[in-house]
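Now for our target.
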Amino acid sequence: MASVGGQALIEGVMMQNGDRVAVAVRRTNDGQIVVRDLPTSKRLRKLGEIPFVRGLFRLYDMLSLGIRALNMSARIAFPDQEEEMTSGWGLVTFALAIIIAIGAFVVLPLYIVNSIPSLRTGSSIPFNLVEGAIRITFFLVYIIAISRMKDIHRVFQYHGAEHKTVYTYEAGEELTVENARKYTTLHPRCGTAFLMIVLVISILVFSLAGNPVLWLKILSRLLLLPVVAGISYEALRFSGKEYDNHWWVRMLVKPGLWLQLLTTAEPTDDMLEVAIASIKRVTEPATPPQAELAEETEES
């Protein structure tokens, strides 16, 4: 059975099965579920097959696809809103978000630890352990803070709906709300688990850079980020495949599952209906009526 994954959106869910990607969103004005196909890019596709290189490629691919899916979900969910973000502004917003994330979760923890004399001039191992602990703390505080926002909580509910639906599909059960409802919202292949792996792997990889002056530390972190992403992606793939086969793999995955306690929430039945509509679109054979409906919806 093919590996299916997804992403929570604004009032909806994106599901991906190989090259097939679908966005399902419930419109806020009439409550109807709208399903649209989302084309995928075939550029640099061969890079996605090279171990350790494919991690960075997949990260870029998912970020690009995720932004397009979010923009599409916002347009579908709120069709009465006339204002629409252009692709140029979307790129600027994404670039600013990346800069802020690097500043908050890479540069700032590094600067704080570097201000401690005993760590600044000591071994790189305790330096990176403290730096990593601060980075993880910042990340947890950020997740807890945004989870208290009503709109973000709904996204986390759709995140839970995505996981429950994927579990139902992987179990070979009929894709119904009743079958999906019983599953957990925590999944070992989740992108949240990937973030936790990145935070842990970064401690090990950054230690290889030693303990130079501050500007060299910052430069080394930035240059080593692709290495961290590559190793982390391979670790996520391995844990996803071997999760049910080895107890020690399940133990290593636990922190990522615990983190999902913050990034997922129990969905309502109508949210499960949206997730089911999305996963059906990418797992069932396409039919001419589906194609016609997609074209009609896109024009509208």
